[in-house]
Amino acid sequence: MHAKTDSEVTSLAPSSPTRSPRRPVYYVQSPSRDSHDGEKTATSFHSTPVLSPMGSPPHSHSSIGRHSRESSSSRFSGSLKPGSRKISPNDGSRSGQKKGQKQWKECAVIEEEGLLEDEERERGIPRRCYFLAFVLGFFVLFSMFSLILWGASKPQKPKITMKSITFEHFTIQAGSDSTGVATDMISVNSTVKMIYRNTGTFFGVHVTSTPVDLSYSEITIASGNLKKFYQSRKSQRSVAISVMSNKIPLYGSGAELSSSTGTATLPVPLKLNFNVRSRAYVLGKLVKPKFNKRIECDVTFDAKKLNVPISLKNSCTYD
């Protein structure tokens, strides 16, 4: 084995595995960049190990310190964005607390708004529907009530009974009409009596009628009108109608009636007809049932029964 030179010894000395005492490690903390928003600084830090100057060569101590300080300052300054501020490690916990408080306040506001909306739904929506529901219900109930009244009033029809007719004057004489045509003329004065009875238990009726016509051979020889009246509930009255005429031309129909005495010697068949109209105002003018009755009576005039009531009890039809 040949002896080693001084140069080889000096070159191998630094690389020889000499044991040295355990060197302490220092860490430089640099904050990481924020992920997206650029407004808040994250609280996480990167740890960069730096060798202690104890085991390092004397010439590298200052350079390593400067390099570590420069790198940490450059990393720290690079992580900040325009408009941001520097924060200490304690700022992370403070910002977390503020963030938690803000989230709690936001949740409290949202929950309060939700409760207010639920309260408005419970209170506001039914109030808006109350009026419409009341009006609709009122109309439904009122319509049903009106229909009930109308249905209850229809069967309660008034009853009309024809009593008699009395002829006070009945003459036939020659004459001429308005155009000068010669013909027989008839004049009649009579009174028709009837009984009107309102059977309604909870309403009165207003009564009118068409003209009361007395005709002979389809010629109206006398006429009268029923005066309008009001009949209260469950009551009746006797009604008298004056049926009269003056010099009504008979033309060819009066040939068999004429006589020298000016009165008919033979019985004269006559017909009495008219319509009675009754209207009840059960609920003002909203419920007003109508009752119409057509009356036709066969009457026979006898000169011997002048001024004597002629019964119509079995001589009339009611439709």
TrEMBL record:
Give yes or no: UniProt keyword Membrane: yes
| tRNA processing listed as a keyword | no
Lineage top rank: taxon: Eukaryota
Keywords attached to this Swiss-Prot or TrEMBL record, sorted alphabetically, are: Membrane, Transmembrane, Transmembrane helix
Give the region (Disordered) as residue ranges: 1-104
Mind telling me which residue stretches traverse the membrane in this protein? 129-152
Biased amino acid composition, Polar residues? 41-50
Q: Where is the composition biased (Low complexity)?
A: 52-66, 73-82
Could you tell me what this protein is called? Answer: Late embryogenesis abundant protein LEA-2 subgroup domain-containing protein
